[in-house]
User: What shape does this take?
Amino acid sequence: MMRCVPKSMAASSLSLNSLPLQPPPRSSSVATPTTLNNPGDIIRNLKPIVVYGNPPTYVSAPARRIVAVGDLHGDLSKARGALELAGVLSSDGGDLWTGGETVLIQLGDILDRGEDEIAILSLLRSLDIQAKASGGAVFQVNGNHETINVEGDFRFVDYRSYDECSDFLEYLDECEHNWEEAFVGWAGVSERWKEGRKMYQNQWGPWNLVKRQKGVIARSILLRPGGQLASELARHPVVLKVDDWIFCHGGLLPHHVAYGLEKMNREVSDWMRGVSESDGHQQFPFIATKGYDSVVWNRLYSRDNEELDGYQSNRIKSLLEETLEAVGAKAMVVGHTPQRAGANCKYNCSIWRIDVGMSSGVLNSRPEVLEIRGNQVRVMKSKRDSIGELQIVDYT
Assistant: This one.
C-alpha cells in the first residue's frame, strides 16, 4: 500500500525550489553482469536472465518468450491495451504483471504527443519489478523524443503533459521526495490527480498562463541533464541485444557497431545523468542521438519500397546484413516510423518495423505487438482486427 496519497488539488502547491536533483544511484561497474534470479527458475530448470552493461546492452534470456512494443507517445490507455494484448498486463485495472517469465521490450518514444508520459514510464518500472520476481524482465530503449526532451526541446509536448509534470512534482512532495516510491506509484494514482485537476480547471481562468509556466518549469526540472526523470531515462540504453536480436528505436548501422554499443549506451546515460568529463564539460553523445544516421533518428530501414529504386534497396539490405553480421544478430526490431499498414518485416525479415502509431497523438491505430518464441516470430493484433495476425515467420 502506497503511503503517499494525492492531496486536495485546491490546497496543493508546486514546490520547485526544494526538490533534490541527485540522480538515482548507479552501480560502480558496467562490466559486471547482473543475474536476475528467481527461485522458481531452479524448480523449472530454467536458466536465469543475465544482463551485461549499465545501462543494459547485452541480455541472455534463455528459453524466454520475448515481446516487443513500439512507440507509445503518452497514451496510457493504448499502452495498457498493447501490454494486455502481449499478455503481460492484467486486464482488471490492477496493473499486475501476468507475463510470467516473458521478457518485454519497449522501443522508446514514450514522451511527447500525449498527456500520460510519466504514468507510462511508471507503469513499465512497476511491471519490471514484478516481472523479475516471476523470472521475467522489462527493458526499454530510449528514442529520439526522450533525447530531445533532455536537450530541452519541448516542441512536440502535449500541453496536458505539462500538467502531469506539475502534478507529479506535487505528488513527489507528498511522498517526502522519496523518488522510488513516488515514481513507481504514479501510474496507480495519476488518473485521480488528473480528475482532481479537471475539477478545478475552471477556477484557473486568467491564470492559465501562470499554470502553463509552472508546467514548463516542472518539466525542465525533471528532464534537464541530471534531473530526476532524465536520470530515470538514463537507466535505459539506446540499443539492446537480447540473445541474437537487436532492439533499437531508429536503426543500427555498421559505424555504430564499430564505435561500440556499450560505449554509446554509457555516453548517452552519462549525459542524461549530467555526468561531466574530467575537464568539467559534458560530452554530448552525437553518434547515438544527433543526425539523420544516429541510432535514435535513423529511418533507413523503415522507408517504403516505392520510395526506393533497385540499387537503393539493395544497398540498404547490404548495410543491414553488414550490421547484423558485425553484431552477431539474426534480425533487428525498430520503431520510430509509423507503419500505416501495420507492423511488418522487410529484407527477408531481417528487420521488423513495429511502430504502428497507436497513440491518439499519432495515428490512433489499434495496438500491435511483436512476439518472439525461439525461432518463430509473429505480430499479435487485436481480436477485433479482421486482418488477424501475420503468418508466423520461422528462422530455423
In short: The radius of gyration is 21 Å. The chain has twelve helices and 14 strands.
